[in-house]
Amino acid sequence: MQLILVRHGQTMPQPFFRFEQNRPLSYRGKRQAHLTGAYLQNATVDLLISSNLDRARDTAQIVATYINLPLEVRPEFGEQDVGHWNGLSIDEVRHHFVGELEAWEQDQFHCRRGGESFTELERRVLAAIQCLSEANREQTVLMVCHTGVIRATLSVLGCLRREVAHTQMIEHCAITKLMVASSSTQLLALNETTHLAQDHAFVDRLKSRHLI
């Protein structure tokens, strides 16, 4: 199975960092999704799936208009669950759940970030990919998902060392390609963003004019 992983587009900005929220795509995120769809429209894709979270599903729905495939929503590829940290700032987590943030910072693989540890995410993603690969052995699957899911995939399939995969940069609408076989996985592309050159140029122009 060839697996094409696409991170969702940029989401609506927030004034300061809060842990996982199901925010909608921004205007730029929608433009990134259109550029991704246009780039993939001539690719051979047999199955299009996405996470059930709005930002991934909405990105995939835009991509679907270019590759002319129905979208299947798969909750098992949702982002790492942050449980009762959801929607909270770092200071709010420290205040309401004393010691949890510090424990997570010391061991981000095993401590639950309010809900699901990275190790638990890895197990969930591995089980889901194994089922996906078994059902689509000779096909190309395009999945729109999240940074955590892509990092977990790279880790559990042995594409990157766990410590490297856990912090690997994955840009909005970046493409990562894998060839998944029963005995091994080949990493074909990692965080590919050449199709987003138009978007990057637009942002650079705004920055040069001090508009952002």
Characterization of the model:
By secondary structure, this protein is α/β, with parallel strands linked by helices. The chain has a domain at 23-49 and 70-81 and 116-208: Rossmann fold (3-Layer(aba) Sandwich). Helix content is 41%, strand content 16%. The chain has 8 helices and 6 strands. Strands 3-2-4-1-5-6 form a 6-stranded mixed sheet. Helix 2 links the parallel strand 2 (47-50) and strand 3. Helix 1 runs parallel beside helix 2 and helix 5 (118-135) packs across helix 6 (147-156). It is globular. The mean pLDDT is 93.
Short description:
With 212 residues, the chain is α/β, with parallel strands linked by helices.
Q: CATH H-level name of the domain at 23-49 and 70-81 and 116-208... which superfamily?
A: Phosphoglycerate mutase-like
Class computed from helices, strands and strand pairing: alpha/beta
Low-confidence stretches: none
Please work out how many helical segments DSSP would assign.
Answer: 8
- Total strand segments: 6
CATH architecture of the domain at 23-49 and 70-81 and 116-208: 3-Layer(aba) Sandwich
* Beta strand %: 15-25%
CATH class of the domain at 23-49 and 70-81 and 116-208: Alpha Beta
Distance between the termini: 41 Å
Q: SSE string, helix = H, strand = E? A: EHEHEHHHEHHEEH
Mean of residue pLDDT values: 93
Alpha carbon gyration radius: 17 Å
CATH fold call of the domain at 23-49 and 70-81 and 116-208: Rossmann fold
Give the overall shape: globular
Main sheet properties: 6 strands, mixed
Task: Give the helix proportion (percent range).
Answer: 40-55%
Strand order of the largest sheet: 3-2-4-1-5-6
